[in-house]
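Why does residue order matter? Because the sequence determines the fold. Keep that principle in mind as you read this record.
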Amino acid sequence: TIFCEGKTSTQTIQIAERILEKKVIVLATRIDKDTAEEMVARFDNADYDEIAHTVTIRPVDYKADPKKGLVLIVSAGTSDIPVAREAAVTAGVMGAHVETIFDVGVAGIHRLLSHTKRLRKAEVIVVVAGMEGALASVVGGLVESPVIAVPTSVGYGASFQGLSALLTMLNSCASGVLVVNIDNGYGAGYAAALINQRSSNSQSDGQIGDS
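Structure:
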């Protein structure tokens, strides 16, 4: 992974070239549009997600394994989607089957409840929310799977650029809610993919419920 903020396009491309020599996927995050366009022009199999601000580059001869499990990415509002998309792209690159449910914040709780069956099928859920960040607690109370909460910097002045959502999520009384830093969709997607991979491997090995 290349964290692109603070790097020039030349630096980013040079790092990507070194990583590709190892025949592995390159994921560039927090990338600006100009650098992304240069990378797409430079590398074959480069995919730019303008919403997530990511570029994914797969080696020319790369053969992907079948996607495993289910990582569900849930966002409270449309303004939270860029962070949610970063989480989705990251988990997908790491081999998870990813699905998304967007714009189901607690201000219209019926929108979330209509997806209860889908929520309960996921191995792990990433919940992305700004404002007061209550969505993570609500989802945590509905499911038995781990919930990774991502506070975003979306909200009015008293949200303090995501601090309010962060504190709400840290103080959640719902069991199984874990919290990453503000706007850290990448960290959430990475952690979700690791949990999903181990859960899927345990099921395929017949280890679930063994003593």
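The mean pLDDT is 91.
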